[in-house]
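Q: Structure tokens for this one, please.
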Amino acid sequence: MTGAGIRIVLAEDQAMLLDALVALMALESDIHVVGRARTGDEALALVREHAPDVLVTDIEMPGLTGIDVAERLRADGSKTRVMVVTTFGRAGYLRRALDAGVRGYLLKDAPIATLADAIRKIVAGGRAIAPELAETVWDALPDPLNDRERAMLRLAEAGRSNKEISEALHLSPGTVRNYFSEAVQKLGARNRIEAGRIARANGWL
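A: Here is the predicted structure, written as tokens:
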């Protein structure tokens, strides 16, 4: 944080909501939006360019998710703190976010004053977790999926065929089938569609 106030980047794929967040943050005299993104990849690039105090990000966005971005920034050794604002109130999402180094996690129905105060809190070195979720994280089941399995289940959830998935991830069709088989077995599912539903319900996607 500098004497000029708190510098933030906002990442949200819904244009109307992103515009609203920018406008509302403009009402806070000590918080300044230095970048806005509609994809995870844009968010990562903006943080690397501007080195803001805080990245405020959704989880589900085109390309990298908010949690993916947090993991990349942690690997970079970035000093930017990450605040997740999402509709996903499941303990699994919160557990993954905390494991990725996220410092704040709020739900989108929280008042804007709560978000502003949470930003100030994490800049001061604290954490800001939605009270209704803070206790649930201890009951979250461990995520059994690896990054490759997670990426494949997301693509399957989007309706992509095995061939399309193999092309998107530069894997052979046989390797794709093996990954799906592992994911299905780990999740106790009957097929990849059910595996995706189980993973989504637990916050692992």
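A few notes: The first strand starts at residue 6 and ends at 11. The mean pLDDT is 91.
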